[in-house]
Amino acid sequence: MHEPSEPERNEAEMFQDTVFGSDLVTEWVPGDEPRQRAEIVAYHADADDLLARLAAHPDEPWVAYRWETRVAFGVDPVALARECRERFPDGRFCVFPIDDRLKRRRAPVV
Question: What is the C-alpha to C-alpha distance for residues 25 and 14, in angstroms, rounded to an integer?
Fold first, then answer.
């Protein structure tokens, strides 16, 4: 079976390949698990700040991290991932949703 090349794939298919559950969007970089763990831990550690920001800016329910650093907020996960890909061509970033479930989620054990 023919695997489509990057130019043949539409953005929705590429987005599907980067979504893990409904909790995060990331470019998979093999061997980069420490960075991804750092982003997940930072996301959970920032829960109160993120929820406060969402209350002030309800039109931007997505946040991007690169290592422990918040790098952008966005309206749409696909657009935010595209912006991050432009800024970070190495694909080292994660995009997370900001919503009320954030308070109920447990931070991962690292």
Answer: 11
